[in-house]
């Protein structure tokens, strides 16, 4: 159980220091050259890594996009020449391991990489205009009218979901602001259309949370709605609303952002205000992504001060939970997949009850790069709020 106080969360420059040691932990345990090639880096998917993971037989494209995003966060926190070199090495690593291409068949994967590459250019000066142009073209072609609109989850599939459409909308707004040659004059309209499509088809009118996605028949009609609730779906939709509010000045987007923040606080937190986790694997990244876009909302929703402070509280209480429940690992802290519970070391397997009632032990999710990136992301989000002067306004149980 987390015991936290506003005073503990608000110590000056505390979060920058914590984010720095989280960064060092990921560096020590996960970063490796790709096939021993100089000036390349990627993150091994697990720690300790198997030989196949060290050789990047398995590499998880979209996890690498978030690793790049975290390094960009760190560069924003404390700029160094070494981090710029790391950003360059990671972008080279992605292209090399992806067999000299920037894209794959998953629209959500390439949208995540597009966001990370765009930020790498803005923050670290590592520009990849050809990569961004290739990603943007693919995302633009991913929209169809089937299912009422939206971008597919992957090519030649029947699923359209928020994890593909939310990041694409955020990227389209940012590209529209950049303009040519990569940005297209219609990108802002594309972002609006995506957000309206999600609003119409996937927002739960009862809770205000957004569902995962929908299945589409061959004739374009909707067959089924996947109503699973994931934290990162809330994060990317919130991110799209905040970007659109800034770009258009339309208060509709601010109201929708406020509704989303309130829904997250009501339905996706523990009694201590800590955001819900989703285990290891891909799910290990979900809650960290939500903290990223909650922090953006806290800094940018100037016309909604209560929503801003609620978003900040969600980030800061969650980051405090992740930190207080960390374990000690080589080079730095080891975070757990659920920030309201103590983290485990790799030699402390967890019991797992199978459907038939048998109990077996499973490797802890703490071994996954995704889980460690999520914890690091939360601390960087808290450090960003610290730099912006935002501190806790509520007691943990009052969210």
From TrEMBL:
Source organism, top-level taxon: Bacteria
Listed Pfam families: Glyco_hydro_76 (PF03663)
SUPFAM superfamilies in alphabetical order: Six-hairpin glycosidases
Protein name: Alpha-1,6-mannanase, GH76 family
């Amino acid at each position: 159980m987390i015991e936290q106080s506003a005073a503990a969360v608000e110590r000056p420059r505390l979060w920058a220091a914590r984010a720095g040691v989280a960064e060092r932990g990921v560096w020590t345990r996960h970063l490796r050259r790709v096939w021993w090639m100089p000036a390349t880096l990627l993150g091994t998917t697990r720690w300790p890594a198997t030989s196949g993971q060290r050789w990047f037989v398995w590499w998880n494209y979209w996890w690498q996009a978030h690793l790049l995003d975290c390094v960009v966060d760190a560069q924003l926190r404390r700029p160094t020449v070494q981090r710029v070199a790391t950003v360059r090495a990671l972008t080279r690593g992605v292209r090399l391991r992806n067999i000299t291409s920037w894209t794959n068949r998953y629209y959500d994967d390439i949208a995540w990489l597009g966001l990370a590459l765009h930020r790498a250019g803005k923050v670290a000066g590592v520009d990849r205009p050809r990569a961004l142009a290739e990603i943007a073209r693919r995302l633009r072609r991913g929209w169809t009218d089937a299912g009422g609109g939206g971008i597919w989850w992957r090519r030649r599939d029947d699923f359209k979901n928020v994890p593909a459409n939310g990041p694409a909308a955020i990227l389209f707004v940012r590209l529209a602001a950049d303009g040519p040659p990569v940005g297209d004059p219609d990108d802002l309209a594309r972002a609006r259309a995506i957000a309206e499509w999600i609003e119409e088809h996937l927002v739960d009118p009862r809770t205000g949370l957004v569902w995962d996605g929908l299945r589409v028949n061959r004739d374009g009609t909707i067959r089924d709605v996947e109503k699973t609730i994931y934290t990162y779906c809330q994060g990317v939709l919130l991110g799209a609303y905040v970007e659109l509010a800034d770009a258009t000045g339309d208060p509709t987007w601010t109201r929708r952002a406020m509704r989303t923040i309130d829904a997250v606080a009501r339905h996706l937190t523990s009694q201590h205000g800590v955001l819900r986790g989703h285990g290891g694997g891909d799910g290990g990244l979900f809650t960290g992504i939500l903290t990223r876009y909650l922090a953006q909302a806290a800094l940018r929703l100037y016309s909604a001060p209560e929503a801003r402070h609620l978003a900040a509280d969600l980030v800061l209480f969650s980051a405090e939970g992740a930190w207080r429940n960390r374990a000690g690992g080589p080079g730095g802290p080891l975070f757990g997949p659920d920030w309201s519970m103590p983290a485990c070391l790799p030699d402390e397997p967890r019991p797992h009850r199978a459907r038939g009632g048998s109990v077996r032990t499973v490797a802890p999710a703490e071994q996954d790069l995704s889980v460690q990136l999520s914890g690091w992301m939360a601390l960087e989000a808290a450090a960003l709020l610290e730099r912006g002067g935002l501190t806790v306004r509520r007691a943990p149980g009052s969210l």
